[in-house]
Amino acid sequence: MAEPYLLPSEPIDSLDAYLATDFGGLGVKAAQELGPAATIEMLTASGLRGRGGGGFPTGRKWASIAGGGEGRRFVVVNAAEGEPGTFKDRALMRANPYQLVEGVIIAAFAVDAEAAYICLKASFEREREAVTRAVQEMQSAGICSDCTINIVAGPDEYLYGEEKAMLEVIEGNPPLPRWFAPYEQGLFATGPQAGWQATQPSAEGRGAGASNPTLVNNAETIATVPQILARGVDWFRSMGTEASPGHVIATVIGDVVAPDVGEIEMGTPLRAVIDAVGSGLPDGRSVKAVFSGVANAVVTADHLDTPVTYEGFQAIGSGMGSVGFIVYDDTTCMVDTAYRFSRFLSVESCGQCPPCKLGSGEITVHLENIERGIGTEADLQGIMRWLNRVTDGARCYLASEERIVVASILNAFTEEFAEHIELRRCPRPRQLPVPKLVDLADGVATYDETFWRKRPDWTYDPE
Ligand SMILES: Cc1cc2nc3c(=O)[nH]c(=O)nc-3n(C[C@H](O)[C@H](O)[C@H](O)COP(=O)(O)O)c2cc1C
After folding, report:
1. What is the model's pLDDT at position 365?
2. Ligand 1 mean position to 458 CA, how many Å?
3. 278, 259 in Cβ contact below 8 A?
4. Contact 55, 49 (CB under 8 A)
5. Which pLDDT tens digit goes with each residue over 213-225?
6. pTM tops 0.85, yes or no
7. Residue-wise pLDDT tens digits, 17-31
8. Between 293 and which of 20, 97, 107, 321 could a Cys-Cys bridge form, CB atoms 3.0 to 4.6 Å apart?
9. Which of 48, 56, 78 for a ligand 1 pocket mutation test, highest count of atoms within 8 Å of Cβ?
10. Average pLDDT of the segment spanning 194-200
11. How far apart are the CA of 146 and the centre of ligand 1, in A?
């Protein structure tokens, strides 16, 4: 395994300590020497892809912002980390906030941004403190004396991490995704009616007024940038594969011996990642299913040798997501996992697109019926019907997540659904957590227990 370049073995807690590392501060110097256009070209050549879940090529995204529409430019760092099973951005901000801020400075320079926003959750107090300190120290040291970096402490909702909703939060609104992507309707774009009508606006609606193209990148993506600038494209491409170069920070939780985060080289087989980062499974247990967050198809035990790369997961009909692996052992009821994941997505759905809110709610009720032993064939048919329609007219990807994850469990574990209906009970009852993490330290994962009290309208049942 190559040397880690994202997660140092000991947290870096001062600017002096950061600048004393081999490459601390050298990325921003390299970018200034290269200039904006060559900086973006270098990122494109490096093959870096977004670590927020979609894997979009980072250089291409930066180029589209730099050369995009009218108006001002902004940079937004997505550090909201709401994906169940993922803790990598918080681990990164705890261990190495200076590298993240150096990446922000480079991004703002490359796309000529007027200001940058680092968006995390108000509940991430430790991370907010670390990042705030890093920004202040780098500003006083003159590393970013002429750049404005704001830290936004947002709501706990899953949708806050969705990029179009994140822009709304920065503008002072609830986390409800607007229609247009941030490169089309960026922060403080004029033409306020565009994006707020009930139906999808026509092509003419786009670009009315200044669109203020806004770059949104995941925190890990941004923290990778200074290393590429400082050490070069060949160094970065010497790790991983042609289509998935570099390292990623993996989270491994669930039925493993010691849940944790760890930096891995892309291309490492999933099984080895589960062993290296999560210390494997206890003796006598075996893997039944692995989920990379709640946005991708279930990975079954016969695919544990899949390399952790974008193309490797695509080849098995799934996705690498943000490399947060939720591992379930052979005692797990897959109907129950489907119910819990569906309930999470249904509660977190914002309700702007009726098929998403209604459909995911209906699917959740049907799954709960089957899990509780009162389900019938009609429940299965109800699920199928809604899976076909839940994404209709959706303005964000949440509804697709519901369809992909539930359909994949139904397909891979059909017999478990039939078994529940026939036996009229769950044959594998067991308390499964909903793997939304509030902390992960010393081999212990702390899950968000308030989840069960959260109502579909985002209020909470009293304790
Ligand atoms: C419902 C939903 C939640 C999301 N949550 C996050 C998140 O917590 N963190 C994140 O980086 N991206 C999240 N994303 C993806 C972002 O919309 C966006 O694609 C990403 O920040 C782009 O960064 P990247 O190109 O560096 O990957 C979410 C997407 C959806 C649909």
Report:
1. 98
2. 20
3. yes
4. yes
5. 999 999 999 999 9
6. yes
7. 999 999 999 999 999
8. 321
9. 78
10. 56
11. 28
pLDDT value of residue 431: 87
User: Taking 60 as the threshold, does the pLDDT of residue 205 lie above it?
Assistant: no
Among 310, 401, 265, 325, CA closest to 55: 310
Pick the atom of ligand 1 nearest to 163's CA: 17
Percent of the chain residues topping a pLDDT of 70: 95
Alpha carbons 323 and 266: distance in angstroms, whole number: 10
Distance 213 CA to ligand 1 centre (A): 17
Q: Is the CB of 329 under 6 A from ligand 1?
A: no
* Protein residue closest via CA to atom 24 of ligand 1: 50
323 Cα to the center of ligand 1, angstroms: 13
Please give the average per-residue pLDDT across 141-166, as a whole number. Answer: 94
Distance of CA 104 from the midpoint of ligand 1 (Å): 17
Q: For the chain, how far is it from start to end, CA to CA, in angstroms?
A: 46
Ligand 1 nearest-atom number relative to CA 165: 17
- Matching residue, tokens 């491994």: 252
Give the DSSP letter of residue 297. P
